[in-house]
Design goal:
single chain; mainly alpha; 9 helices; 211 residues
């Protein structure tokens, strides 16, 4: 399936995600930052390239659509976690990233996080994120139970929660970026009257942009 067609279909699964004023303001601020090197507010500096690579694997550049780093998805994730996540979730996210990086370095025999490439990262993404709906539910139940009881969170569970968070925030930021909103989704700068139920055939199958 082409990226353009896939993004059109994201509307049903992610379009209902709450669009808070804080999230949109973060998105807007991220449009000012350009380039592969940027100053993180939550991640460690040596983790920036890793986050860039992960998000570009999740949302790679194609002939008809930009990649995640081209629309500043990593910058959004960094700022969103720093400004929106609760302290406990920030700590768990940071630990999850460290777990994943250490696992990758051990598997590949590489010594530096910056040496990891897409071929190194893709297998662990597939391994961790390929879960059934039932498995996903059990993982989140175990995660919340550990948080509630203030017990140690299993490394595999933490890895899943962390990478699942990266994936969800990546898609949210990508879908709501200015470029994707105006060039890939159905975009109306000045919406007309409110219509609660519109046949998607009227928009050639495209979800409406929230940008």
């Amino acid at each position: 399936m082409k990226r353009r067609e896939a993004i059109k279909g994201i509307g049903l699964s992610f379009g209902a995600l709450l669009v808070s004023s804080s999230a949109l303001s973060i998105l807007q601020s991220c449009t000012q930052e350009k380039g592969p090197i940027w100053e993180p507010t939550f991640f460690e500096k040596n983790q920036v390239q890793f986050l860039n690579k992960v998000t570009d694997i999740i949302l790679p550049k194609t002939p008809d659509s930009p990649g995640a780093t081209e629309v500043n998805v990593p910058q959004f994730i960094d700022k969103f976690i720093n400004e929106v996540y609760e302290a406990e979730d920030q700590q768990n996210f940071a630990k999850g990233i460290s777990n994943i990086v250490n696992t990758l370095l051990e598997r590949t025999g590489k010594s530096d996080i910056e040496d990891l490439d897409a071929d190194d990262i893709e297998p662990i993404l597939a391994e961790v994120l390929k879960k059934t709906k039932e498995e996903d539910q059990k993982i989140w139940e175990a995660y919340e139970e550990a948080r509630l009881n203030e017990t140690a969170i299993d490394a595999d569970i933490l890895n899943y929660v962390t990478l699942n968070g990266v994936r969800g925030l990546s898609i949210y930021a990508y879908k709501n970026s200015e470029v994707v909103g105006e060039e890939i989704l159905e975009y109306k700068p000045v919406p007309g009257k409110q219509e609660g139920c519109i046949d998607l055939s009227e928009t050639n199958g495209k979800a409406y942009s929230l940008s």
